[in-house]
Amino acid sequence: MTKKNIAIAGLIAFSYSCIGYYPKEVFTSLQDEPITCKKKDSIVALYFEGEPINFEYEKVGLIEIQGANYDNDSQVISDLKKLAIAKCCDAVIGIRKGSVEREEGLAFVGEEGFTYKSITYYGIGIRRN
């Protein structure tokens, strides 16, 4: 039993030492108080920069997803939607695409990882009034 626990602890420590292997989620709240949603929508509308917004809304927060090394546009956009749902948003407006340099490798090891350009999507998470 103790060998099993040690093995599990080792796997957990190893997985936490991996840097840049997963998408990075960034959320900055624009609310004074935390938002609680009674029911989370499963569908999030996406409005890219320049698209008209013809409805009233409340800004929830700034949302950004930095993709992992081999992620494509659809994977990063899917992660953007998931983060918006988790933060009680029913739409993301003003979405822009960019790229950012990220490092991939192992933490707490003397070896340097390698740097790659990550696909990034960011916008403003909102709730419709």
From TrEMBL:
Under PROSITE patterns, the record lists: PROKAR_LIPOPROTEIN
Question: What name is this protein filed under?
Answer: Lipoprotein
**Organism, scientific name:** Flavobacterium profundi
